[in-house]
Structures are given as structure tokens and as C-alpha cells.
Amino acid sequence: MLKVLVALALTGCLSEPEKPPGHSPEIRKETLVADLDGDGKDDLVAWGHAGDPRQDADLLISWGGNVPGAMPDLTLALANEQFAPWHEILGATLVTSTRDASLRELLVLLGEDRALPPDGISSRKVYAVTITFENHQARTITTSPDFVGQSNLGGYADAETFAFVAAHDTTVGGQIHMIHGSDTVFFDHGLPLDTSTATFKEAKLTARDGTEKVQGVYALLPGTDGREDFLVATDHRVAITSGDAGDFGFAAEKPLPATTRRFTRARTFGTTATWLVGAAPDVPTASLVRVAPSTGFALEVTGFEEEHAATDLALVQFLTHSDIDVVALEGGELAAYENISLATGNHDARIAIDAANRDVLVVGHFIDGEDLILLYDSGNPLAAPICFRGPLFGACPST
User: Fold this and answer.
1) CB–CB of 98/222 below 8 Å?
2) Distance of CA 169 to CAs 2, 97, 155, 266, 379, Å?
3) Distance between CA atoms of 63 and 57, rounded to whole angstroms?
4) pLDDT in tens, 254-300
5) What span, in angstroms and rounded, lies between the C-alpha atoms of 21 and 161?
6) Which of 27, 246, 302, 307 ranks highest by number of CB atoms within 10 Å?
């Protein structure tokens, strides 16, 4: 069974802006780095608006094999209803299966509002789109019926959406699922998308108390039984899910350092482990989480000190390093914390370089050989990114 989990966490009700911010291109700080076409190289998916948000919500895709440049290779306008006051892409994930190599599609969660405030949630809708690709073009685009959304989805590309998307595959046959929700409640919705109905069944993921909020949901590597589960990060703990839709629970959990309140990126390196990095707003500390099949999916957590509070972090593994590395946007700089020890949190001396006012951090294996680090400007996504290679922020190759 393939499953997709979409968790929506609320840290204070977001209000919808009274009018669109204009016609300038803009992207969110969230991006998806994944191999969309199965060629073994990462591709970059950004989302926001290539134009007027009253008309379109856009995916901007750059294919791997070359260093991503100023212009996306493919822009897809996704909108259910033209000229609604608000359109937004809330999250995206690559859906694959450990049992079916031919399954490779992009799942996108979108929202729109068909009325201006104060109508609020009564007119706010959410829907899903799945996309398959062929020869670097969209081959199929399937859209679900819309359904009433959550009040915490709102905002344009310069505001948080609190939407997280992940996919996993189980060896237990049955219906394919998409699950979405808010805070601690999740709802089940079938995949492939049924375009004739929007019927859901409620599922629960129990929180410790009413103040706990989901910060992210991530797919784990398959265990010895071939089953994949979810790693859930809240602002209190990390935990691994057990059970299926309608009966989600936590099979394992571990508390987080009190200063960790926001998780940003997860990444799987080969077949060895899934890593997660997080930070605390306005506090120069960060946390690493490691989950590996070889340890029976035991959760390992360590903290490390930063020089400045980070606005974004990403996981990277430089070629000459055996331990994990983290790059961070902090204090106007791009900083690297290299060879972080999971046992102690110790790391090499901080290396930093001017971030040139860029606010979108992307790390990916876009070409053969090594990870590349890209810095984009969310307010000017068509400008060429600044590109670095590690471990000393050297210049990127020309292709």
C-alpha cells in the first residue's frame, strides 16, 4: 500500500491578506529536491507565483543533469478556478513505491479562496493534483474535487502555510491513500485521485497535549519487513508512526531539546539512514535526528550550537566527510557546520560566506559527483542562483 501523509500544523491562526501582493514572480522558501524523472539526478521543484496569484499557482521545475540556472525548465500553472482572490500551492512530494518502480508522480496540495475576508474558512477550499512526466514535460495532470479547507492554510508566498507532505509504501496491500489534516487530526483520501467524489474517513494521531503542534512528517526507509513508516516531528518530540489510516499511533518517540521548535529538512542518504535537522527561532541552537533500519528505527537525537539563529537549514554530505554536515542561512551568511558527531554534537570550526541577501536554501545532487548548494531570492526567483560546492564553498562547475 502506498500512502501519502499531509500534516498541517497551526502556530497561530493566519489571516488572509486583503488583496494579492501584485504581479511580480515570487516563490516560497520551501522547495522539493527529488528525482522526478528517474535518471539518478536530483531535480528542483519550487512553487509560488509566476504572475498574478488571482489567476495561477505555479510550479517551477529545473531538471537535473545541469546546475539549475536562472530560468526554470518547466513552469506549470495549477489553478482550479480562474480569478479567485487567492491561489496557493501548499506542499509537494514525489510519490514512489518500493514494489512498483514504474510509479513516479508528483503530488501537489493546493488551496484557494473564492471570496474576500471576512468569509474565511467557509469559502476556502483545498484540492490535490497529481502529475506524471515524460521527456521533461507534463504527461498527465489529474485534479481532485475540492473540499473545505482549514483556516491555517492562508497567506501568499511570503507567509507560512504550515503544510508538510510525505509518501510511504507498506507491504500490506489495499487502497492507496492520501492523508491530510490539521494539528493532530488527519483525514484519509484515496489515490489515484477519484475525480468524482471527495469522501474522507477520519484518522487520529494523538498529541501529548493541546499545545503540541506538528512541524513535519517524513517517510522513513523500509524496515526488514519492507514496510515504510512516518517520522513525525512536533515542537515537543520526534516519533515513528504505527498502524494505518484510521488507527495512527506512535510506536516510538523521543523528546527534543527544549530549544528546538521548528524542523526544516529531512534527507535520506543511500540506504543507511534518514536524517532530520531542525532549529529554534531566534535561538542559536539546532538539533539532528537520525533513524536507521539497522538500529531497528531507534531515534537518535543530538543538539549543536550555532553562531547565530538560523532562518533555514539543510543537510549535506561533502565528499571527503564521514559524518553529516549542515548548512544554514544565519545572520546574513551561509554557514557550514561540518563533521557533526551524533554522539556529542561536536563539529569542525564554522565556515561562513556572505549570503548576498538570498533567503531560499537548496541542496541537491543535481550533477554527478557531489552535492551542490544553491541560494535563491524568493522575491526574484528568475534571477540566477548563487551556487557553491563544499566543503569550503568553492565555485560550482559550469554544467
Assistant:
1) yes
2) 4, 6, 32, 17, 36
3) 20
4) 887 766 666 667 888 777 788 888 887 778 888 888 888 777 778 88
5) 16
6) 27
pLDDT digits (tens, 9 = 90+) for 297-323: 788 888 888 888 888 899 998 877 777
The cell 474517513 sits on which residue?
A: 201
Q: Quick one: 320 exposed, middle or buried, by C-beta within 10 A (0-12, 13-18, 19+)?
A: exposed
> pTM of the predicted model, to two decimals?
0.85
Collapsed DSSP state (helix, strand, coil) of residue 31: strand
User: For residue 397, what is the DSSP state?
Assistant: P
Closest CA to 266 of 30, 62, 45: 30
Q: Are 203 and 29 in contact (CB under 8 A)?
A: no
Q: Are the CB atoms for 363 and 373 separated by under 8 Å?
A: yes
Are the C-beta atoms of 285 and 279 separated by less than 8 Å?
Answer: yes
Residue 95 neighbours by CB under 8 Å, 6+ apart: 2, 4, 103, 104, 105, 106, 107, 130, 167, 191
What separation, in Å, do the N-terminal and C-terminal C-alpha atoms of the chain show? 39
The strand pair at 86-96 and 74-78 is best described as unpaired
Which set of grid coordinates corresponds to residue 34?
Answer: 527529488
Dihedral Cα 207, 209, 215, 220, nearest 10 deg: -30
DSSP letter (8 states) at residue 66? S
Peptide bond into 192 cis (omega under 30): yes
> Minimal CA–CA distance to 67: which of 390, 370, 377?
370
